[in-house]
Amino acid sequence: MATNKYRDGDSVKCWLRYADYKDNSTFFKQCGKNIVCRCTDLQAKTAAEELAAAYYQMYGIKPAISDDVDSQPHILLEKCKSSDPCGFSIKSDTDSIAITSSDGSGILHGAFALLRYIGCNEDISELNISETPREKLRLMLQWDNADGSIERGYAGQSIFFKGGEINCTNPKIRDYARLLASVGINGIVLNNVNVGQRETLFITDSYLPKIAHIADIFRAYGIRVYLSVNFAAPIDLGGLDTADPLDENVAVFWQKTASKIYAQIPDFGGFCVKADSENRPGPMVYGRDHAQGANVLAQALAPFGGIVLWRCFVYNCHVDWRDRSTDRAKAAYDTFKPLDGKFLDNVVLQIKNGPVDFQIREPVSPLFGALPKTNVLMEVQITQEYTGQQKHLCFLAPMWKEALDFDTCVKGRGSVVADIVSGKVFERNLGGIGGISNIGDAPNWTGHPLAQANLYAFGRLAWNPTLSCEKIADEWIKLTLGHNTEIIKTVLPMLLHSRAVYENYTSPLGIGWMVKPSNHYGPDVDGYEYSEWGTYHYADFHGIGVERTSRGTGYTRQYAPPIADLYEHLESCPDELLLFFHHVSYTHKLHSGNTVIQHIYDSHFRGVEEVKNMISAWKRLEDVVDNEIFQEALERLKIQLDSAVEWRDVINTYFYRKSGIADEKGRKIYD
Ligand code: GCV
């Protein structure tokens, strides 16, 4: 049985387990004795402390921290003029390493990068590298509520809030800041976008001092704090009878609120707003549009350098399933495209990666390509609401990477989403990526220990979307589970393949929404079929799928012509999205050569076998992987298998009953 090196007291360090890296670098052992910090920025001091702490954990010796360059050998932390904000250079010399940046946060990111190289056992004695983050906003989005619950959270309770109060002395907050900074995150929205009565008060004097305390913790790690706010706060807090964004008193309310916040949190990031969505208040209540709604907040924040993250998850959640012309997938584009150019420069539209809602397979939202005069940010879900709820292994980097690499063709070939959200394609100054966090107060942070890889991958991709999933997974494994080749050979393919496995035994060919409506876990094929949420599959005895072409809802027309054409025609529509775009018969032949019905059967049988294979592979690691991680993951893999079997049988039986077509391989399908 492997020893427990994973835990340090009560805290699990995830990928910051320095003690295990002690044999990785004699060069660090030599240079790290003296940390010379010639920069007074707070984050540079943190960098010095992080390097010193790592050194201490590796070698049991406390390095000297000073500003004396004559102490040799050393690691030097210094400012330089050349790098972009947050960017850094690392250069090794005979007996020294210099980490330089134009700002303290860059130095901190450089320090964490150096430690990552060491953890991955790379030679740091001849480093000469420079890095700049590709995305400006790299945000962690908490869906934490004041009562301590977390919307769609699968790893325990909030580390920030408890019983209606702010738990600002929780030591886990600093641990979290370290984890986030180590992968380049530079902002955190502390509370859920569904802002309840209690959370509405977060922008008042009753709560701001404690929020300011949390902001202090994150500031030391180069992370700005944001809050989700209630659009109706002028009524709820300001005593006004309206929240109309064009009402002067409403504007004054937001200005006063902004002044109050910045007096306590000078680097406050800004507001995140879910408006006119899923029964939340918003500008449409007053006959105003989203630009007018966002701009009143943006105007209030602008003098202080704050921004508004305005969500585009807006659709009619009371539709009638009998009306086939309505299409929820079209809603965000229809609402926001006409407003392009009307948002102030400090507004960023926050767009979910797909047009519907974080299903295991969706096309990329066409809205990314439709807003040349507006700042945009891609929102992804690290928490596994629809992807197995941290009971199932589902490494999400391949899904995010597909979205980031997606070529919208809006400015000719090569207009990829990663470059749109970075501002490059349309020359915007602001934009980036936000991920809904998957952590809670679970001792291992994420419930499923391997779900830590999703948190890690999100940060790494936000920093550099061109990194491959394989590289990111390999780094995470080495930093978290160690360098044993058996571990790498086993866990790497498990992670990389896990999204495909999940997709195999759940919803086929881009159809989505076959989950239980109550908690979004487990199969319920018709659970959403006759509901008001606009999430239908339209399966009948003949076929299945949503006709979103010009013969149907016309959704395909929201893409640039080459993409619209691709999806419009059966001949070119990729198999994995077929049922998202087309209603076809069960006997329709896919590009793979299989019929739709046979694909459903095959993928569901295969998915279950793949989970069994993962379990066998994982079991072979019993003696090499940390015992706590081994047991936690094994327990969840077994739950995953039970659930996969349930999915397989429910889906196969459902479609067998609908179609009356038997499995050509004669496997067991219940009737
Ligand atoms: C925060 C989905 C989730 C909701 C979530 C919403 C959103 O509908 O199920 O829990 O609410 O998305 O993104 O606003």
Task: Describe the protein in words.
A hairpin with a 2-residue loop joins strand 1 (7-8) and strand 2. Helix content is 35%, strand content 12%. The protein has 19 helices and 20 strands. An 8-stranded parallel beta barrel has the order 9-12-13-14-15-16-17-18. Helix 13 packs across helix 14 (469-481), helix 14 crosses helix 15 (485-505) and helix 18 runs antiparallel to helix 19. The chain has 671 residues and is an alpha/beta fold. The model has no long low-confidence stretch (mean pLDDT 96). The protein binds 4-O-methyl-alpha-D-glucopyranuronic acid (GCV). 4-O-methyl-alpha-D-glucopyranuronic acid is lined by residues 143, 151-152, 192-194, 274, 278, 313, 357, 385.
What topology does this entry show?
Layout: E1 7-8, E2 11-12, H1 26-31, E3 34-38, H2 42-59, E4 64-66, E5 74-79, E6 88-93, E7 96-101, H3 104-119, E8 128-131, E9 137-141, E10 161-162, E11 165-166, H4 171-182, E12 187-189, H5 197-200, H6 208-219, E13 224-228, H7 233-236, H8 248-264, E14 270-273, H9 290-301, E15 307-311, H10 331-336, E16 347-352, E17 375-381, H11 397-405, H12 417-421, E18 431-436, H13 452-463, H14 469-481, H15 485-505, E19 543-544, H16 561-568, H17 578-581, E20 584-585, H18 596-619, H19 627-659
Parallel strand pairs: 3-4, 3-5, 5-7, 9-12, 9-18, 12-13, 13-14, 14-15, 15-16, 16-17, 17-18
Antiparallel strand pairs: 1-2, 6-7, 6-8, 10-11, 19-20
The structure holds 4-O-methyl-alpha-D-glucopyranuronic acid (GCV).
